[in-house]
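Minimal example, chain plus zinc ion.
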Amino acid sequence: MGTLLRDNQRAAVYRWERGLPDGRAFPTIPECQTFIDEVWEEWGTGSPPTARTIGGYRAWASRWEIDLPEPTRFERYLLHEITHSLQHCDLDITCHGPTFASMYVFLLEEYGVITSAQHEKERGYLQRPRKVRFL
Ligand SMILES: [Zn+2]
């Protein structure tokens, strides 16, 4: 069962997104929350996740909470984590698979962080040693 459940695209997604623009900055947690609410209003159902910070180094998300250390308070990190919340990634450990990558790149284009989803998908396909798979 290991192969189906491993989050085996995570490293490829991380490498790919290093080349993305950061987008707008949201320096404070309330500003992050405002952006989360705006995205959630459009694409989510039920209550939006709550932005918080517990002092770690990495952003992290569940359906209900998004942890945002200061260096991650930019549009692209928020959209990454919001995508996890939208997809209830705490229930599915293959959090960075094709469904994730497709929704993430869609939102990046929708909010103007990137200008072409197709271009970014093509860049994702070039990742080594693994390419990023999209739907
Ligand atoms: Zn992630």
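The helical segments are 2-5, 10-17, 29-43, 75-86, 98-110, 117-125. The chain has six helices and three strands.
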